Amino acid sequence: MERKANSYRDLIVWQKAHKLVLNIYGITQTFPKEELFGLTSQIRRAVISIPANIAEGSGRQGTKDKLRFYNIPLASLNEVNYYLLLINDLKYAETSELILDIEEVGKMLKSYSNKISKNYSNS
Fold it and tell me: Under CATH, what is the fold of the domain 10-122?
């Protein structure tokens, strides 16, 4: 029997997304100062929205509303993925591990959303 999450913090997908935020904050601290209001700001804004929308979605009562908030981070994951490619190409940091983390969070979020959709259509 599956244990029901009491809080968004119990969701493994949220935990992994939060860890991703911490890791990206860590690597962006080493970026050139001229990137502070450019790439650093952009990737931080995008990556923060991933666990934030998962947290907000978990608090939604309606299935459609919940799924909408779980769809938003999927778009943000794509945005962050691009920024990580750019960061690697600019040689600011090696990002292959973070890209794998992005892909893992995306797969988990899609799976979680599919499960919610199936439970909704079966009820």
Answer: de novo design (two linked rop proteins) (1.20.1440)
